[in-house]
Amino acid sequence: MSTLEIKDLHVSIDTDQGNVPILRGVTLTINTGETHAIMGPNGSGKSTLAATIAGHPRYRVDGGSILLDGEDVLSMSVDERARAGLFLAMQYPVEVPGVTMTNFLRTAKTALDGEAPSLRHWTRDVKKAMGDLRIDADFAQRNVNEGFSGGEKKRVEILQLELFHPRFAILDETDSGLDVDALKIVSEGVNREHAKGGMGTLLITHYTRILRYIKPDFVHVFIAGRIAEQGGPELADRLEEEGYDRFTAVEA
Amino acid sequence: MAETTQTDITPDTPLDGGASALDEKARLGSATIGRAAIDGFTEEGERLPGGDDGTEQLGLKKHSHGNAPVIPEASRGERRRSFDLADFPPLTGQEEDWRFTPLKRLRGLHTDDLTGRAPAVEVTGATNVRVETVGRDDSRLGTAATPEDRVSAAAWNAFTEATVITVPRETSADGEVMVRITGSSADPAAQYVLIRAEQFSKAVVVLDHVGSVALAQNVEIVVEDGAELTVVSVQEWDDDAVHVSSQQARIGRDARYKHVVVSLGGDLVRLTPSSVFSAPGAEVEMYGLYFADAGQHLEQRLLVDHATPNCTSRVTYKGALQGQDAHTVWVGDVLIRKAAEGTDTYETNRNLLLTDGARSDSVPNLEIETGLIEGAGHASATGRFDDEHLFYLMARGIPEKAARRLVVRGFLTEVIQQIRVPALEERLSESLERELAAGNL
């Protein structure tokens, strides 16, 4: 079993108006096999947490630590973090010119595993995973995310999740912009990977609807860069009824 | 950026910067149009609808039509064509077809007498192809090509002997024809090469340019009825070379012609490849690959002249740029004349900016004088490889250098694969690796 430990994390960004603190002391521990939902209003720092774990250079860590089985994640480069088993399903996956999906997936898999996947098995795995996610076969020959719709990009993120088998997956608003059918397809993909038992999940979302398909073990409410409340799945039900007003009112 | 991380990404772009569709496209003609006239088209030609409105989005630019003042021409088909230098006034840089070219760096090709020593020509490879060196009075010269600009006309006036390569009638060349063109003088010089593929012949001819030159060159290409000819022009010049080359092809009935440009080396390279259909039923493919480093100017201006019915053309040019003041220019003119019913044409240019400080100009022009076509369209896109792309690939475990190479290789290999000469493809792939390495990518 693996553990991802976030301790008293403080993160800021530099803007034209100066340095702006975003995360103000976040502490969170996720174990393999657990699903944690992080919920909160816009601007509460949910996506910042995701990007900081993955190592996006825009975010400055001012304090605290992130440990993966005791290893210091913050001292790793972006690609080292991925190879250590962290996976970020991005909120806005970028279009990468000039690289076909096929080439990209194989190159990434090779980098992650340290050796090229067996061609026969790999081709079969990719084909099956694409089929499961209702991704058209001809996407394999298209450039990464180029011209894909918002929903297609999200499905391709989950495709990678299923092919790369990360130890910890951070899903950054994977549900946003998806219609009900696409939401189900994407959720099933996450659940399939979860069922294999080797993955912990940090599910970041603004809405509760994805939690009907992906059942969290823990729910954390993010307000103004801190965890304001945490509990079990019942907390999500309460948020669905009451919204975030109760928290933001206190904050104000 | 967090001091504890070890990446070289700089934090100058927002995480949430979404990119969007890379293409600006205009596509005309479809099954439903068939033989009917196309709405919005007049017999005077057209302006494509929904075209260049100058909209920019993060990292993606629509194709520019340049900033320089322009002397308009009514139709590409009306451009002056002449063997007489006096028909082309001295260049000012204001001319439509010279507006992107830094004339100061032409090393006198547009002003001086082209009396320097022409680069050496060595032809190897196929044994059943005829190679001759002829005087300028040889009647075969200048039958299929007429200069369209001042430098080309000057080169026509100045060359002393020409290389003529003939693929005899109904002959399939028993190997590639490798034409090694080696420059060894910085004095402005002229050169003439004629490539003739006689009826129903088949050959691949590679013009392999190396060394140092200030060269005004005319390459005349005749593709007779039913012939199948590939001409590859590789520019791996030394860093100081200046090369201006007109490469005009005349395409016969049911002929197939493929032209491939690979421009990597040289200070200034300006190619004007053209394909003129002279009879129905022919197919043309024109490919190009260019990789500009800091300070390099690589320019290509194409013309596909559909003057006869039922011909097909496809143009695909791709460029990569890295370093301060790397500049590439691609202008693609496609002309569909009134007689060219049943034409099917599409042209694409894509550019990839790998660093700041580089500039890529891309101008597709489509001029249509008949609506009775199968299809006509173009696409142009210039994209950036930026920190967000790098982050995405690295977040999937791919190290930074590998990520950059992955992108550039993937982008440019498509064109190299069109050459279909394995040894040359391999050499050019290695050259690309060196370009990448030189840019510290």
From TrEMBL, chain A:
<keyword id="KW-0067">ATP-binding</keyword>
<protein>
    <submittedName>
        <fullName>Fe-S cluster assembly ATPase SufC</fullName>
    </submittedName>
</protein>
<dbReference type="Pfam" id="PF00005">
    <property type="entry name" value="ABC_tran"/>
</dbReference>
<dbReference type="InterPro" id="IPR010230">
    <property type="entry name" value="FeS-cluster_ATPase_SufC"/>
</dbReference>
<dbReference type="InterPro" id="IPR003593">
    <property type="entry name" value="AAA+_ATPase"/>
</dbReference>
<dbReference type="InterPro" id="IPR003439">
    <property type="entry name" value="ABC_transporter-like_ATP-bd"/>
</dbReference>
<feature type="domain" description="ABC transporter">
    <location>
        <begin position="4"/>
        <end position="249"/>
    </location>
</feature>
<dbReference type="InterPro" id="IPR027417">
    <property type="entry name" value="P-loop_NTPase"/>
</dbReference>
<comment type="similarity">
    <text>Belongs to the ABC transporter superfamily. Ycf16 family.</text>
</comment>
<keyword id="KW-0547">Nucleotide-binding</keyword>
<dbReference type="GO" id="GO:0005524">
    <property type="term" value="F:ATP binding"/>
</dbReference>
<dbReference type="GO" id="GO:0016887">
    <property type="term" value="F:ATP hydrolysis activity"/>
</dbReference>
Automatic annotation (TrEMBL), chain B:
<protein>
    <submittedName>
        <fullName>Fe-S cluster assembly protein SufD</fullName>
    </submittedName>
</protein>
<dbReference type="InterPro" id="IPR011542">
    <property type="entry name" value="SUF_FeS_clus_asmbl_SufD"/>
</dbReference>
<feature type="compositionally biased region" description="Polar residues">
    <location>
        <begin position="1"/>
        <end position="10"/>
    </location>
</feature>
<dbReference type="InterPro" id="IPR037284">
    <property type="entry name" value="SUF_FeS_clus_asmbl_SufBD_sf"/>
</dbReference>
<feature type="domain" description="SUF system FeS cluster assembly SufBD core">
    <location>
        <begin position="187"/>
        <end position="411"/>
    </location>
</feature>
<dbReference type="InterPro" id="IPR000825">
    <property type="entry name" value="SUF_FeS_clus_asmbl_SufBD_core"/>
</dbReference>
<feature type="region of interest" description="Disordered">
    <location>
        <begin position="40"/>
        <end position="82"/>
    </location>
</feature>
<dbReference type="GO" id="GO:0016226">
    <property type="term" value="P:iron-sulfur cluster assembly"/>
</dbReference>
<comment type="similarity">
    <text>Belongs to the iron-sulfur cluster assembly SufBD family.</text>
</comment>
<dbReference type="Pfam" id="PF01458">
    <property type="entry name" value="SUFBD_core"/>
</dbReference>
<feature type="region of interest" description="Disordered">
    <location>
        <begin position="1"/>
        <end position="20"/>
    </location>
</feature>
<dbReference type="InterPro" id="IPR055346">
    <property type="entry name" value="Fe-S_cluster_assembly_SufBD"/>
</dbReference>
